[in-house]
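Note to self: keep these together.
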Amino acid sequence: MSMIGSILLDDIIVKQGIMEHNVILNKLNLKVIDSLKQDKEGADSKDGMDISICVIDQKSNKLSYSGACRPLVYIRNGQIEKIKADPYPIGGINSCKNGYQSFSIDLKKEDQFYIFSDGYPDQFGGEKAKKYMTPRFRSFLLSISNQPMKNQKISLEKEFKRWMGEEEQVDDVIEMGFRV
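Structure:
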């Protein structure tokens, strides 16, 4: 699914030149459904994928966001905030039928933004081999937010390994963050 998504995103963004985040997700959704023939009865693939897209307009100093099952988390003035994603994956049997929502935020100096896969929160570990969970992940992000971004990366890696312990990694893990 990641390979298909990458190829289709390249077509939508690079070849077609589309930069509107929600339009990108809407087109990607339709292209995945079409590519995998998920709109046909008896389709082999019913899987979808989660994705978040942020676009920064430096002229207006705004960040625009759309998400398919993956939120945007940001820290501003020591407070952690979340913008919920649409609860529909890209493609699959439960994909979005009415288009993905668009959100916009005025950027402020020292804001920190994070998008991430579900791999980190879904990782089993700790004393009782339970999932890390998203609230704990957000709390950890807040606890390391005073560090430079390079150090946050190291802290995230150490925390993940600490939590995982002897458990096997259950999914791919992607986190992306930046500070304004």
